[in-house]
Specification:
Elements: E1 2-7, E2 15-19, H1 21-30, E3 44-47, H2 52-57, E4 67-72, E5 88-92, E6 95-96, E7 102-104, E8 110-112, H3 113-117, E9 125-132, E10 135-142, E11 164-167, E12 170-173, H4 177-183
Antiparallel strand pairs: 1-2, 3-4, 4-5, 5-6, 5-9, 7-8, 9-10, 11-12
Length: 184
């Protein structure tokens, strides 16, 4: 990747940030026509499905995991006529979505579903498997330009504290059940 930012102060001198290689590749693919279109987005707000009562209410099968769509925030993102409030995204491009909104990555790690889009181009077709009112549906969305300002790289503010801590070279962070199950 390309080093672009670091944090100083508050015992954070050893934290640096890079732009990952896949994001750089996405940019170079995007700019081939001389125009930077940007990174597509799903254009939804979503809620995790860890709560058993919530899963029961939406009739999520025992062997399924997913992410609950709470609102569509971008009417021109191509999702407002496909995804509806209360849909549960079960998979994206045949990648099962965990109850925490994460999908497995090539290395065995897990990443947020929004990260999948950072590798895609506007105009690409995205296949979704959803649960709507207890019925499983297979849908496709053509990824479009996002209408709200979203950076392909997570930005930080001065008051931001990372959700992990480094102690003597050991990184400590919260793990989800989906991450643990994926690892074993």
């Amino acid at each position: 990747g390309v080093s672009f930012q670091g944090l100083t102060g508050h015992d954070l001198e050893n934290i640096g940030y890079i732009i990952p290689t896949p994001v750089i590749r996405q940019f170079f693919e995007d700019i081939k026509d001389g125009v930077v279109n940007g990174v597509p987005a799903l254009g939804i707000n979503a809620q995790n499905m860890h709560n058993e009562q919530l899963r029961n209410f939406y009739k999520v099968p025992e062997d399924a995991t997913g992410l609950l769509v709470t609102t569509s925030v971008m009417s021109d993102a191509g999702t407002s006529d496909v995804l509806m409030k209360d849909d549960i995204i079960l998979s994206i491009d045949n990648q099962p979505v965990g109850n925490d909104g994460m999908v497995a990555y090539q290395s065995g790690d897990r990443m947020d579903i929004g990260s999948l889009l950072k590798f895609r181009q506007i105009g690409d077709l995205l296949d979704l498997k959803i649960l709507r009112q207890g019925k499983t549906l297979n849908l496709s969305i053509t990824l479009q330009e996002q209408s709200i300002n979203m950076s392909p790289v997570i930005t930080h503010t001065l008051s931001y504290t990372p959700d992990y801590v480094v102690i003597g070279g050991l990184v400590i962070q919260e793990l989800s059940v989906d991450y643990i199950e994926e690892s074993f």
